């Protein structure tokens, strides 16, 4: 059996405030590479929602390898839910490597986004933390300590 060629296209996250989420992620260093409003029969079919209508922003990491799609629903109305916890089944978190975790945390704090508990060091390899980002998104920030 031949396997299908596959690569990760993006991670999509529904947010309650698109502009706040875009501001947070661009301040961390991502770049907006596109914005659009999506609706119509094709969107209903692809997503599986009748009357699907959302504003979207596509962001990209500086290395060009990672993309994050943020979307704010216009219709149907967005459903508020409790922010996920690290041990819940399902979509967990989005993780970013950063050059300077302290600087990244200062940037996150300007958006009211703080670590869940603190910054940990993993086996002298990484300093890392989870912050609660806009719309309750879990965001992991990790700084490699021993650069190759």
How would you portray this structure in words?
The chain has 148 residues and is an alpha/beta fold. Helix content is 19%, strand content 34%. A hairpin with a 5-residue loop joins β7 and β8 (138-144). The protein is globular.
Order of helices and strands: EHEHEEEHEEE
Major β-sheet profile: 4 strands, mixed
What class do helices, strands and sheet pairing give? alpha/beta
Enumerate the spans where pLDDT stays under 50 for 5 or more consecutive residues.
Answer: none
> How many domain units?
2
> What share of the residues lie within helices?
10-25%
Helical run tally: 3
Report the span from N to C terminus: 38 Å
CATH superfamily of the largest domain: 2,3-Dihydroxybiphenyl 1,2-Dioxygenase, domain 1
As for the CATH topology of the largest domain, it is 2,3-Dihydroxybiphenyl 1,2-Dioxygenase, domain 1
CATH architecture of the largest domain: Roll
CATH class of the largest domain: Alpha Beta
Q: Radius of gyration, rounded?
A: 17 Å
Strand order of the largest sheet: 1-4-3-2
How is this fold's topology laid out?
Layout: E1 11-14, H1 18-28, E2 31-39, H2 41-47, E3 53-60, E4 67-75, E5 94-97, H3 101-110, E6 120-122, E7 126-132, E8 138-144
Parallel strand pairs: 1-4, 5-8
Antiparallel strand pairs: 2-3, 3-4, 6-7, 7-8
Task: Describe what is shown at a glance.
The chain has 148 residues and is an alpha/beta fold.
Which short descriptors sum up this protein?
3 helices, alpha/beta, four-stranded mixed beta sheet, 148 residues, 19% helix, 2,3-Dihydroxybiphenyl 1,2-Dioxygenase, domain 1, 8 strands
């Amino acid at each position: 059996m031949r396997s299908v060629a596959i690569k990760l296209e993006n991670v999509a996250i529904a947010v309650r405030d698109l502009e706040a989420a875009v501001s947070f992620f661009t301040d961390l260093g991502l770049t907006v590479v596109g914005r659009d409003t999506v609706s119509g029969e094709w969107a209903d079919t692809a997503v599986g929602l009748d009357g699907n209508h959302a504003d979207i922003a596509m962001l990209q990491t500086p290395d060009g390898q990672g993309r994050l799609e943020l979307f704010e629903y216009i219709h149907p109305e967005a459903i508020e839910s409790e922010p996920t916890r690290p041990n819940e089944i399902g979509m967990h978190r989005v993780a970013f490597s950063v050059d300077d975790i302290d600087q990244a945390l200062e940037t996150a704090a300007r958006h009211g986004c703080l670590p869940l508990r603190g910054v940990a060091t993993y086996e002298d390899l990484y300093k890392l933390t989870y912050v609660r980002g806009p719309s309750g998104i879990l965001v992991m920030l990790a700084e490699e300590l021993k650069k190759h």
